[in-house]
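Blinded run. Sample ID left blank on purpose so nobody reads anything into the name before looking at the predicted structure. Input follows.
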Amino acid sequence: MLYLLISFVSFILLSKSFTHHKPMLQTWENNLRLISLKFWSGSSSFLQKNWISLQPITSKLKKMVTSGSNVEGQREERETSLSLLDLPDLALGCILEKLPPSGLFSMAAVCSSLRESCKSDHLWDNHMKHKWGTLIGPAAYRQWQLHVASRNRTRHYCLKTRKKGLMESLAAIILPSTWTTLPQSVTCVCNCKVKGSSHSLPVHSIMSLYLSLESGKFWFPAQVYNREHGNLGFLLSCYDAQLRYDSRTNTFQARYSPYGRRVVEENIPWDRLRAAPVDTPPYKLHVSDCLHDLKPGDHIEIQWRRNNEFPYGWWYGVIGHLELCNGNVNHCRCHYNDIVVLEFRQHTPGSRWRQMMINRKDNREEGNEADGFYGGVRKLYNDEEIARWKRLWPSQVLE
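Blinded prediction complete.
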């Protein structure tokens, strides 16, 4: 093929050099035309025959060029890209602090390094205070610790049971059946699946507490205003209960435990709940520390229960004037008297529930089986607490 090309070019040059001898070279030109036609026809047939065999070579060359450019581009991209884990700890911490709980939970599933960072108590403590700060008090944290201890004992029992079962199985394989008698397999009562992974969430972490609250798996103690859907017998009162959150409705379920029966209430909104303001169990008398400071017009809560078998509830009232006092602020001497008048103004004047008198020097339970028993008193200093009670005021005066 190369030889034909060289011959063709040489004949062209030769013809150009003898252009002034046209008559003599006319036959040469005709011959050259024939040669050129044969050359191009031969070359075209050669290319057509060999095009199929050349295609793989050209495609390979193209792939080599493009792959080389892609490798270079990926290398440059890797060199210029910055991973989240390459950030300084302070910058990464600032980013994680901006994430909502769902974002932190999702980020914890990315890798082991982010999992450790996203489980930090510091991050979850902010979310706990923001959403659950008004409900989770000291009593709830104590119950959570008991809940964690119970879960740990259950996990330990399941691990011990599984380990014992494994050793007995090995003994049954190695030793003859006449040497040992294996007991029936023990089934864990909790049907738990114990995993030995080091990546499991610590049950004592704040993240674990938050997720247990959100999922409704943890019942916690708190107090409910106007219990049992605003039953007239509980208006302007607040009772202890065990609560569970329902994320679908953003409400709560409450379990009350009065004497003789168990009451369950559904769909309780957030504004009817609070953490216990004092660390006093519902069956214990609260030791009052404000009796000597009480004066007419003060807002108070006082313990009351039907009888000794029932738990105390907290009832809202105000300090009133003694019968001999005309109510004049400049001449009132009620705060110097040992007798303190409690007024429950949601009841009509003359009602047996309207007033109650206690002795400020004697902190004890007072009352009888007919009117119930009054216990400890706590004075309300917080305006928000007082405003909350007023928002719960009944639409009509009670008898």
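Unblinding after everyone has recorded impressions. The chain has ten helices and eleven strands.
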